[in-house]
UniProtKB/TrEMBL annotation:
<dbReference type="InterPro" id="IPR002104">
    <property type="entry name" value="Integrase_catalytic"/>
</dbReference>
<dbReference type="GO" id="GO:0015074">
    <property type="term" value="P:DNA integration"/>
</dbReference>
<dbReference type="Pfam" id="PF00589">
    <property type="entry name" value="Phage_integrase"/>
</dbReference>
<dbReference type="InterPro" id="IPR010998">
    <property type="entry name" value="Integrase_recombinase_N"/>
</dbReference>
<comment type="similarity">
    <text>Belongs to the 'phage' integrase family.</text>
</comment>
<feature type="domain" description="Core-binding (CB)">
    <location>
        <begin position="104"/>
        <end position="185"/>
    </location>
</feature>
<dbReference type="GO" id="GO:0006310">
    <property type="term" value="P:DNA recombination"/>
</dbReference>
<keyword id="KW-0233">DNA recombination</keyword>
<protein>
    <submittedName>
        <fullName>Integrase</fullName>
    </submittedName>
</protein>
<dbReference type="Pfam" id="PF13356">
    <property type="entry name" value="Arm-DNA-bind_3"/>
</dbReference>
<dbReference type="InterPro" id="IPR053876">
    <property type="entry name" value="Phage_int_M"/>
</dbReference>
<dbReference type="InterPro" id="IPR050808">
    <property type="entry name" value="Phage_Integrase"/>
</dbReference>
<dbReference type="InterPro" id="IPR011010">
    <property type="entry name" value="DNA_brk_join_enz"/>
</dbReference>
<dbReference type="InterPro" id="IPR044068">
    <property type="entry name" value="CB"/>
</dbReference>
<feature type="domain" description="Tyr recombinase">
    <location>
        <begin position="218"/>
        <end position="400"/>
    </location>
</feature>
<dbReference type="InterPro" id="IPR038488">
    <property type="entry name" value="Integrase_DNA-bd_sf"/>
</dbReference>
<keyword id="KW-0238">DNA-binding</keyword>
């Protein structure tokens, strides 16, 4: 007959701090486990279905000796009645999860997903876009629904009204709904396939996003290639940081946000390279821009070259001298210049990238991939990009120098060579 363990008092239990497994007696099989970290937990050890099993009863001192004894007695009584208390506990937990899941809505899951991932997104604007698209388009249909009840038909009902009119927004919305439903499945609030998945699911009901966007995309109003000479003359006659930023954008074919956010620490005047960090690139990938002689001349005329100082500064605000030029400042320059495209729309800064692309395609023999790389566009499929590691910097340098020289030549041409189209 096994030796009966001494029944310990609460004070004696409190003194057990060396790592080990200590029987406390009454009822038999109750132990206090002390681990090397110093944590102490209650264990009830008993024979269940012919096997010895350990059942955790909680941590000490949160669970007192009296509470542990009572729990052990209840487990012992259950075993005597043919019930496995460990399995019974698991079943109760499953039932509790299912009960919660039966009350969980799509909106609640979306809010939990946002809270969990917000810190990992690169900026607050991205988080706001997530929240706003769900609020505007998904919640009216899915918000109050039990997340377990969301079906493919519900998702289609969300997407259909904007799939052809706002396809880029709709495509992002679909992906966000898919992620929320994935989160809900992992959390145990729904089961089965994701009704917002594209491949083999929504792709059978909705037209491919690339085809919709190609059919509905409205291009930005761009200065025509034939207008570039007059445009360059007018632009160089304008004064101020906004005019110089616009000229630099023209010469580098860069996006407005990339130019306006540029600081001197990104520019290597000796190597004639401007390195745009991934955080400011649309594709989220660092981009090197070769600088032509003309682009360098623009930079030479700008302010002090402190590493953290903006190259194109705005007006000081509330005592701050290192302020970024606003995007509206560049837009206003183009509005005053009043150049229009073939449809009579006033041209905008972003359209200068299209002007460069039209010139490169119509007036040069540079390969398409070199031209697209100059615009920081992805070329080829995913496999091709995986094997193409270089960025064709030197080939792009020759292209951008040729572009700058062509702008110089066109801009220095005599009056009457080109008749610019202007807005009234």
């Amino acid at each position: 007959m096994p030796k009966k363990a001494k029944e310990l008092t609460a004070m004696e239990v409190g003194r057990l701090k060396e790592p080990g497994l200590y029987p406390v007696g009454n009822p038999p099989g109750l132990y206090l486990q002390v681990v090397p970290s110093g944590a102490r937990t209650w264990i009830y050890r008993a024979m269940m279905a012919g096997k010895r099993r350990d059942m955790g009863l909680g941590g000490f001192p949160g669970v007192t000796l009296a509470m542990a004894r009572e729990a052990a007695r209840e487990a012992r009584q259950a075993i005597s009645g043919g019930v496995d208390p460990i399995e019974a506990r698991k079943a109760a937990k499953r039932e509790a999860v299912e009960a919660v899941a039966s009350r969980v809505t799509f909106q609640w899951c979306a809010e939990q997903y946002l809270a969990a991932h917000r810190a990992g997104w690169k900026n607050a604007k991205h988080a706001d876009q997530w929240a706003n698209t769900l609020k505007d388009y998904a919640y009216p249909v899915l918000g109050d629904m039990l997340v377990s009840d969301v079906t493919r038909e519900h998702v289609v009902r969300v997407l259909n009204p904007i799939w052809t009119t706002k396809n880029e927004t709709a495509s992002r919305l679909r992906g966000r709904v898919e992620k929320v439903l994935d989160w809900a499945k992992v959390a145990g609030y729904r089961a089965g396939d994701n009704p917002a998945a594209w491949k083999g699911n929504l792709s059978a009901s909705l037209p491919k996003p690339s085809k919709v966007q190609a059919a509905t995309k409205e291009h930005q109003p761009a200065v025509q290639v034939a207008q570039v000479g007059a445009f360059v003359r007018d632009l160089r006659a304008a004064h101020g940081a906004a005019a110089r930023a616009l000229e630099f954008a023209l010469l580098t074919a860069a996006r407005s946000g990339e130019v306006l956010g540029m600081v001197w620490g990104e520019v290597d005047m000796t190597a004639r390279v401007w390195t745009v960090p991934a955080s400011r690139m649309k594709a989220g990938k660092e981009h090197r821009v070769p600088l032509s002689e003309q682009a360098l001349q623009v930079l030479e005329g700008m302010g002090p070259r402190d590493a953290g100082a903006y190259v194109f500064k705005g007006r000081p605000s509330k005592g701050a001298t290192n302020t970024k030029l606003s995007n509206m400042a560049m837009n206003m320059i183009m509005r005053r210049m009043a150049y229009t495209d073939t449809e009579g729309r006033v041209c905008v800064p972003h359209g200068l990238r299209s002007t460069f692309r039209d010139w490169a395609g119509d007036c040069t023999a540079y390969p398409r991939d070199v031209v697209e790389a100059a615009l920081a566009h992805a070329v080829g499929d995913e496999t091709e990009r995986a094997y193409r590691r270089g960025d064709a910097l030197e080939r792009r340098r020759a292209l951008m120098q040729e572009w700058a020289q062509w702008c110089d030549k066109a801009g220095s041409a005599g009056a009457g060579v080109v008749v610019p189209l202007r807005a009234a």
